[in-house]
Amino acid sequence: MNRNHLIVLYSLLILCWALLIFNLVKTNSQEHAAAVSSPKLSRLSTQLDSVQVFPLPDSLTFAGEIVPLDIEDVRERLDREIHVNAYWQSNMILLMKRSRKFLPQIEEILKENGVPEDFKYLAMAESALMNVASPAGARGFWQFMPDTGKEYGLEISNDVDERYHLEKSTLAATKYLNKAHQKFGDWTSVAASYNMGQSGFSRRQRDQLSQNYYDLYLNEETSRYMFRILAFKVIFEKPERYGFFLNEEDYYTLPEMREITVREDIKDLATWAKQYDANYKLLKLYNPWLRDKNLNVKKGRTYTIQLPL
To answer: Average pLDDT of 59-82?
Structure first.
């Protein structure tokens, strides 16, 4: 191959590369234009292209009680939890999606029993609205320990654990919270004591000669706990300000349910579920308080099992 042939070949190769690069640039420009024309994609693009410093609210309350944002360390601790949770996007998005399934029932039970609605954010801090289990033995949305759960009326046995029952465990939580309020006199102390225990919180108040949560020097977990609750409230009340844009169809919902009253032992829950045109998975999914493959019913006791229509 002579020199002229090589020059022609190299020229063709350069032309091909130029055409390829031109097409790539054109494609990217079109995709960018499509993103800009779509509000949702445009917002996402803006979020990915920059890291935003979120503003603190001008004022804030918890259960009607003022959060003293004029105190510097209070502002800094709230600022930390807002940014930690706002930038843990996967957790916050799933929590928001999940909230539509469970918050309406929680809010109703809190209201009916005289507990401020803001305590729904405590349930978020405890469990992220999931029936989780802690290494220490706490269970459910409200993370009751076995003895405390039984003290407030929950059945905990080999085949039934009502700490996993949303309605009954929330009702038990309202009893606990109202009793704590009788002791402490303010809801902020009630929330903080839920984390470290009433005796432990009372001891810190006594030792430090202060009743106000915001004036107490506490362990790292409890020190952050109240501000994690506040951060959930701030973000949930104005999600767009913190970069979360959910449409109505994004939220999870519960199906319409039917209730079946059980007064006798169920020897095999899988077989029982089939009799009601359901299956074992659906039975366990919507009745997580059923902890075994069977259900023993004591004399005079009844249970209500929920299944999708």
So the answer is: 97
